[in-house]
Amino acid sequence: MFKLQNYINGELVAPNSNDYIDNYNPSTGKIYSLIPDSDSSDVKAAVKAAKHAFPKWSLTPKEKRSAIMLKIVELINKNYDKLAEAEAIDNGKPMWLAQKVDIARAASNFEFFATAILHFASEAHMMEDKYVNYTRRDPLGVVGCISPWNLPLYLFTWKIAPAIAAGNCVVAKPSEVTPMTAYLLSEICIEAGLPAGVLNIVHGLGPKVGAEISENDAICAVSFTGGTSTGAQIARVAAPKFKKLSLELGGKNPNIIFDDCDFDKMLATTMASSFANQGQICLCGSRIFVQRGIYDKFKTAFVEKVSKRRVSHSLDSNAQQGAVVSKSHMEKVLSYVELAKEEGGTVLTGGTQVHLEGEYAGGYYIRPTVIEGLSFDCRTNQEEIFGPVVTIMPFDTEEEVLMMANSTEYGLAATVWTENLTRAHRIANELDSGIVWINCWLVRDLRTPFGGTKNSGVGREGGFEALKFFTEPKNVCISVG
Ligand code: NDP
After folding, report:
1. CA distances (Å), 367 to each of 28, 239, 279, 390, in order?
2. What element of type H or E holds 389?
3. Do 298 and 371 belong together in one domain?
4. C-alpha span between 452 and 293 (Å, rounded)
5. Residue 32 maps to which CATH number?
6. Does 342 lie in the same domain as 205?
């Protein structure tokens, strides 16, 4: 069976323990590769390599750092289908989706930050003609990046690319559930000539590898994307050490549909915002609020479309939805459907496991699910399910829907459908979330700030925000008078 290796100091190496963890294919439910079960000693070796590489890398001209990163882009594009297939098999998503979204975005992340660093200027502030301040932005040193399983290479590179572009050296941990494309990235980095130690990838479990990254005194910043409780655990460990922290956490996003919307456009996009990537995107709109005038029309059209959605394995080019990432995740998602019923909800479509045939009989498939009849403040409507399950609720007024939309502990993203421009601005202003999409969803310009309010996280990624996170400002004030 294929064994993945850690990437430390420019080399592919076995974990010190020589122990491995099973890696499952969610489409079949079968083990198909082995992942290093690394421990703190592997992280310490990665930190040592990163510390050693840092002085030289941080002093390497940004044009040269940029050129190496663009070589990585070239190699991602050269290995595009191999990466997409690996991502689809590891995660359960349809391969066409991995091609269209995950791998395309991994290449764009490197390309964007390889070029952004060339335009990242420092500020100067004049004080009349007596003093001048200029602000240096220096790399931090060794930084940690920890990412989740839903968009594996996409989110892994979203952190690594700005970190190394800014001159830092990285110790990174992909999710143990979806490690394959991170492993393939380490092969690409070797081929691209990334100097040894600039990027180190340590595979393994969160409580061992992730915990050591959060704790290790030589790691001065941690960029984390994942669940809110894991984010809180990392903050508990890292904050007393005064590490810089960027935390991109969970969401329970509202999708607000007014009766004056462009119905067909809204319906098509709501299918995607509800179920894309099996509903496993932190930005999915899992609470759908529909103004009463079109509630019945929406319900009929939406349920009809959802019930026809084809659920199949990741290599089926006609699959609209694949498997969810793991057996335990499937059980968690289905347990929320049971909870919804206990809370008085009615399942309009879906709500059960899908059993495919043959090789795929053991896969983790869930029928896309629509539930109605729940109160906005029940657990189903407050807790993150992170699967192909949405609820629909009617509303009458703007005030009412804003109250319900803002009622959760999360504040990541929101979607609003209306043709009334004034109302669109008014609602966007009142929504307590880091991102608002009006008459669209998941449109991403990499220059814009990305992140959430409340328990959805701390800090913003994207554009110069990310380069600011991965650099330390130092103000120098000079008397010129
Ligand atoms: P987790 O929080 O379980 O895991 C995320 C990463 O943290 C994994 O690499 C995990 O390792 C690691 N980890 C686990 N425990 C620790 C620890 N004690 N110390 C350090 N690291 C640890 O999230 P999931 O992987 O389940 O991802 C789903 C979550 O991610 C959802 O809540 C979703 O909303 C959120 N998310 C947020 C996004 C955003 O931008 N705001 C984007 C995408 C997802 P291991 O895999 O071994 O457990």
Report:
1. 16, 41, 11, 12
2. strand 389-395
3. yes
4. 31
5. 3.40.605.10
6. no
CATH for 438:
3.40.309.10
Number of domains in the chain: 2
- Residue 18, Ramachandran bin (φ over 0: left; ψ between -120 and 50: alpha; else beta): left
Domain that holds residue 87: 2-249+456-479
**Ligand 1: centre distance to CA 175 (Å):** 7
Strand pairing report for 20-25 and 457-458: unpaired
Residues 6+ apart with CB under 8 A from 392: 288, 289, 290, 295, 298, 299, 302, 348, 370, 371, 372
Would you give per-residue pLDDT tens digits along the chain (481 residues)? 999 999 999 999 999 999 999 999 999 999 999 999 999 999 999 999 999 999 999 999 999 999 999 999 999 999 999 999 999 999 999 999 999 999 999 999 999 999 999 999 989 999 988 999 999 999 999 999 999 999 999 999 999 999 999 999 999 999 999 999 999 999 999 999 999 999 999 999 999 999 999 999 999 999 999 999 999 999 999 999 999 999 999 999 999 999 999 999 999 999 999 999 999 999 999 999 999 999 999 999 999 999 999 999 999 999 999 999 999 999 999 999 999 999 999 999 999 999 999 999 999 999 999 999 999 999 999 999 999 999 999 999 999 999 999 999 999 999 999 999 999 999 999 999 999 999 999 999 999 999 999 999 999 999 999 999 999 999 999 999 7
81 and 211 both lie in a single domain: yes
Q: Is the CB of 234 under 6 A from ligand 1?
A: yes
380 and 432 share one domain: yes
386 lines ligand 1 (CB under 6 A): yes
- Are 81 and 150 in the same domain? yes
**Same domain, residue pair 18 and 58:** yes
Contact 285, 254 (CB under 8 A): yes
For residues 15 and 101, membership in a common domain is answered with yes
Asked whether 225 lines ligand 1 (CB < 6 A), one says: yes
Question: Do 159 and 274 have their domain in common?
Answer: no
**Ligand 1 pocket check: which of 37, 175, 456 to mutate, most ligand atoms within 8 Å of Cβ?**
175
What separation in Å is there between the alpha carbon of 290 and the centre of ligand 1?
31
